[in-house]
Amino acid sequence: MMRIVLAFLVALVAGLPTLAAAEPVKVTVGTYVNQITGVNLRENQVSVDFYVWFRWDDDSVNPLDTFELMNGKVDSKTPTPVRKLKDTNYGQVRVQATLNQPWDVTHFPLDRQTIRLQIEDSDQTSDKIVYVPDTENSTVDPDVSVSGYALGGTKASVSEHLYRTNYGDITLPKNHESVYSRYTQSITLERPDSVYYLKTFSTIFISSLVAFLAFMVKPVDLDPRFGLGIGALFAVVASYFVISGDLPRSSGFTLSDSVNLASMAMIFLSLMQSAVSLMIYERNAARSLTLDRVSLVVFPLVYAIVCYWLTVR
Fold first, then answer.
1. What angle do CA 233, 237, 243 make, to 5 degrees?
2. DSSP per residue, the chain
3. CA nearest neighbour of 307 among 191, 196, 208, 193
4. Cβ count near 295 (within 10 Å)
5. What pLDDT score does 299 carry?
6. How far is Cα 198 from Cα 194, in angstroms, rounded to an integer?
7. Alpha carbon 186 to chain centroid, angstroms
8. Cα 49 to Cα 62, 99, 116, 292, 303, distances in angstroms
9. pTM score, two decimals?
10. Vertex 259, ends 232 and 191: CA angle to 5°?
């Protein structure tokens, strides 16, 4: 009996190093963004220049060599030699990368965007290496400026990302699952005011108001009466294509789409009103004049209310 107990104790003691080695290596990760350039809404891309650093204790791994950017491509990187900070390994690399960024343009040009730097270890799963975010030091350079946007907040976090594939390794099951630790720094971009909104839609707003000036022209003056509306309609359509050329293709309606369609609808209705006013004018000129005067107030007012509702909804 004593021999069995001793054998069990020996086996237990021998197994302790194995259990300790099974613990994942904790790697502290942090990033510092130097520049954000090339914001391309059309191509869903943005260029980012940033530093990324790692701190870890286990000498058997080197996350500086095995990290990868998950949502873009690294254009260039400049690493520094790994050095010791007391008993901790420390490595840093400067990265210039192009990120594949799915922009949310639903509320363009009053949109709010979030840029994400997503980093994983390309070699070890989360049971071998676990990232820990360096939240105290991960930030954005205060001199970073993005045209048309103001920098909002930034946040560093770590999550687990699941992959349901064996990557072609036939020694593993077909639906093999692997989990990797993923570091993410999120950077928020916001429109600072309504100036960009007014600049984007200025042509549309002015063209629509010009179309409503037709109500000041006698219905029998066909060329100016209908020419103002038709010209404004073409101007709005042209502006629509210019704005759409800067945005990614989307199956849904954006704020820009809604304002453009509302403007075209109001101009079309103004042309319909001109036709009705012309019919009335042939029978009763005074009634036609009254209709035009009322329309001169009602159309701009309704148009302003519709545009405001589309903007704030």
1. 145
2. -HHHHHHHHHHHHHHHHHHHHTSPEEEEEEEEEEEEEEEETTTTEEEEEEEEEEEES-TT--HHHHEEETTEEEEEEEE---EEETTEEEEEEEEEEEEE-----TTTTS-EEEEEEEEEESS--TTTEEEEE-TTT-EE-TT---TT-EEEEEEEEEEEEEEE--TT-TTS-TT-EEEEEEEEEEEEEE--SSHHHHHHHHHHHHHHHHHHGGGGS-TT-HHHHHHHHHHHHHHHHHHHHHHHTTS---SSPPHHHHHHHHHHHHHHHHHHHHHHHHHHHHH-HHHHHHHHHHHHHHHHHHHHHHHHHHHH-
3. 208
4. 20
5. 96
6. 6
7. 11
8. 22, 11, 13, 59, 44
9. 0.80
10. 120
* Tokens linked to 256: 């820009």
Going by their DSSP bridges, the two strands 83-85 and 112-121 should be labelled as unpaired
Q: Match 């946007």 to its residue by tokens.
A: 149
**164: exposed, middle or buried (C-beta count within 10 Å: 0-12, 13-18, 19+)?**
exposed
Contacts of 198 (CB under 8 A, 6+ apart): 205
**d(C-alpha 143, C-alpha 47), whole Å:** 16
The contacts of residue 47 (CB under 8 Å, 6+ apart) are 35, 36, 37, 38, 75, 96, 97, 98, 99
Other beta carbons within 10 Å of 71: 15
Among candidate residues 229, 241, 299, the one with its CA nearest the CA of residue 268? 229
Q: Could you give the CA distance from residue 69 to residue 220 in angstroms, rounded to a whole number?
A: 67
Point out the residues of the chain with pLDDT beneath 70.
1-22, 170, 251
